[in-house]
Design brief:
The complex is a heterodimer. Chain A is mainly β. Helix content of chain A is 0%, strand content 48%. In chain A, strands 2, 4, 5, 6, 9, 10 and 11 form a seven-stranded mixed β-sheet that branches. In chain A, strands 1-3-8-7 form a four-stranded antiparallel β-sheet, with no helix packed on it. Chain B contains no helices and eleven strands. The radius of gyration of chain B is 14 Å and the shape is globular. The mean pLDDT of chain B is 91. The chains are: A mainly beta, B mainly beta. At the A-B interface, β5 and β10 of A face β4, β5 and β9 of B.
């Protein structure tokens, strides 16, 4: 069974440019998460989806970040415009069910460098 | 103060040593406790999952939870060079508006020398 798939693996952009990340969760997993992991830190939740609904986006910087999960499967996270401080690894995870206590499985992440 | 505190290390041990990794937490609503392992340029992968105080063993790994002290530990016996990675404690909030939120520690970088 395929795990969580993310693309691209690496992205280098100049500040003020837009960027988008894509995530395909494990088949059948209802809940999808986007995390940001800064260098030397643990992942921090940006947004959680249960099916198509964003149930927790309190940590998402909504002035420049947006996300969508059309049809409750794949998801896209966008930054526009990117800032130097956005350089980090963006991780997608998925879990089965919507109870909140399900095990989260992570993708390999997208490493973003903003120059 | 962060909700989950973890000593970032780095920790360097010889092959065969016993490794102890620790985290403390402050939120009593935390109910599910996990340890993830993250290799360089990879995503975190789940090692251990427990929801009760006490010990849980899986091969060379033992997870220990003390809810009264808000303290969790991961022990690695007979450590191997392949155990070299960053170890992240993670706790799920089981109460209030943050139900289901997974909060990670900073991660401890472990290197096991042959």
């Amino acid at each position: 069974e395929a795990g969580v798939v993310q693309s691209p693996r690496y992205k280098i952009i100049e500040k003020k440019q837009p960027v988008a990340f894509w995530c395909n969760p494990i088949s059948g997993h209802n809940t999808l998460y986007w995390y940001r992991q800064n260098l030397g830190q643990g992942p921090e939740l940006l947004i959680r989806y249960e099916n198509e609904e964003a149930v927790d986006d309190s940590q998402l910087p909504k002035d420049r970040f947006s996300a969508e999960r059309l049809k409750g499967v794949d998801s896209t996270l966008k930054i526009q415009p990117a800032e130097l401080g956005d350089s980090a690894v963006y991780l997608c995870a998925s879990s089965l069910g919507t109870s909140g206590s399900g095990i989260q499985y992570f993708g390999a992440g997208t490493r973003l460098s903003v120059l | 103060q962060k909700e989950v505190e973890q000593d970032p290390g780095p920790l360097s041990v010889p092959e065969g040593a016993i490794v102890s990794l620790n985290c403390t937490y402050s939120n009593s609503a935390f109910q599910y406790f996990m340890w993830y392992r993250q290799y360089s340029r990879k995503g975190p992968e789940l090692l251990m999952y427990t929801y009760s105080s006490g010990n849980k063993e899986d091969g060379r790994f033992t997870a220990q939870v003390d809810k009264s002290s808000k303290y969790i530990s991961l022990f690695i016996r007979d450590s191997q060079p392949s155990d070299s990675a960053t170890y992240l404690c993670a706790i799920i909030n089981a109460g209030g508006t943050s139900y289901g939120k997974l909060t990670f520690g900073q991660g401890t970088i472990l290197t096991v020398h042959p």
